[in-house]
Amino acid sequence: LAAQKKVLIRADYNVPFAYHQNHTEVADDNRIKVSLPTLKLLVEAKAKLILMTHLGRPGGQVDPKLSAQPVAKHLQKLIDKPVKFVADCVGPKVEAAVEKLQPGEILLLENLRFYPQEKQNNAKFSKQLASLADLYVNEAFSTAHRDHASITGVSKLLPSYAGLGFEKEVEALSMLMENPKRPFVMVVGGAKISDKVAALTNLTKIADVVLVGGGVANNFLKADGYDVASSYLQDTPADLKKKGVSYVEVAKKIIAESKTDRLLKDGYIPLPKIVYPIDVIAARSSKSRKTQQLNLINGYEKSVKHELMYLDIGEKTIRLFQELILQAKTVFWNGPMGVFEKKLFAHGTQEIARAIAKSSATTIIGGGDTIAAIRQFDLEDRYDYVSAAGGASLEFLSGKVLPGVKAVQA
Questions:
Q1: Closest by alpha carbon to 210, among 248, 253, 170, 255?
Q2: Which residues are catalytic?
Q3: Which residue from 147, 243, 245, 150 is spatially nearest to 194, judged by alpha carbons?
Q4: 192-249 residue pLDDT tens
Q5: d(Cα 57, Cα 14) in Å, to the nearest integer?
Q6: Before 183, cis peptide (omega within 30)?
Q7: Which tens digit of pLDDT belongs to each residue from 336-355?
Q8: Three-state SS string across the chain, please?
Q9: Residue 54: CA count within 13 A, CB half-sphere
Q10: What is the pTM assigned to this prediction?
Q11: What's the sign of the alpha-carbon dihedral 154, 159, 163, 166?
Q12: Within 13 Å, how many C-alpha atoms sit on residue 134's CB side?
């Protein structure tokens, strides 16, 4: 299909850079690696590859610090083939560079977001991009929730396909929503509940049990009447406050809606569908060297001092979560169980990460902090699927039809 054809590929090379005195280099290449199977397939098919990506938030203006040139150099090392670069996305320079491409050659365009037309999904800009190629491939699932020129605009003008990594992501996430092997255990953590609310609400209906840790757990503890002392609770943005939304109330609603559901632990012990910590590791701040283990179930009122923050899950919670994970057939994990970056508060996240790695279930992991944690604990290759798609995967799991997915399925 792609032999001798010019293929326009939307990748997500929005990677962090390390800036040195005389050069800039890629600091983390995981997002680049996601695209390699698709690129290799097209190179072998003797297609002419034209790659486009965004980098950072330059606000529609040229910012030399966010040029895609260091990405071209790094991709060249990974794919072991020359990767040409052109310092623009559209126009004569780009057209001339595309014209010179030979079968199997790769060209990377400059940062799409140097043009405000990209985010505006400008029809003329989409047409200019589409005019460079015969086919379009989206290999950037992490941007599939954006209605931008390079994602939906171009797809209306060229025969459009999903890349291999894009397809894999859709398959893994669709399985969670449509056909998970049971018991299906969902593990949710991290500091913020805001970006997880919709996915949490949707998946709670599907999962057999939801294990909650991290800052997110504080919303559920408070919603159920527990004192969370000075623990982090994400504030509700002003526009949602006006509508009467509070994240603690959202947690209360999720608890209420799942109140009658029960999971049988060990085949006979009934547990509520939402399980939050029964004990925590607390301290005055994440910089503290002195910690206190608090039992939240028995007599916790007397032991909670107002200045304490809950910074990790405790041993009893770890053991309970581990047992439930080990009897699962499907596990989805997004968000650490505490402030894992600090050694004193990393134990809960590490033990949950190990339990999921040890489990015989189908294991799917997502979220930047979760990926950072499994790297820290050297467990990266121990899971069935690790998603680096961030917000797009959470939106997909909330049940939304993403513009980028629709564009390549049409």
A1: 255
A2: 31, 192, 368, 391
A3: 245
A4: 999 899 999 999 999 999 999 999 999 999 999 988 989 999 888 888 788 878 999 9
A5: 10
A6: yes
A7: 999 999 999 999 999 999 99
A8: CCCCCEEEEEECCCCCEEECCCCEEECCCHHHHHHHHHHHHHHHCCCEEEEECCCCCCCCCCCHHHCCHHHHHHHHHHHCCCEEEECCCCCHHHHHHHHHCCCCCEEEECCHHHCHHHHHCCHHHHHHHHCCCCEEEEECHHHCCCCCHHHHHHHHCCCEEECHHHHHHHHHHHHHHHCCCCCEEEEECCCCCHHHHHHHHHHHHHCCEEEECHHHHHHHHHHCCCCCCCCCCCCCCHHHHHCCCCHHHHHHHHHHHCCCCEEEECCCEEEECEECCCEEEEECCCCCCCCEEEECCCCHHHHCCCCCEEEEECHHHHHHHHHHHHCCCEEEEECCCCCCCCHHHCHHHHHHHHHHHHCCCEEEEECHHHHHHHHHCCCHHHCCEEECCCHHHHHHHCCCCCHHHHHHHC
A9: 22
A10: 0.92
A11: positive
A12: 10
The Cα 264–Cα 138 span in angstroms is 42
For residue 183, what are its two tokens? Answer: 């018991």
Across-strand partners of 51? 9, 108
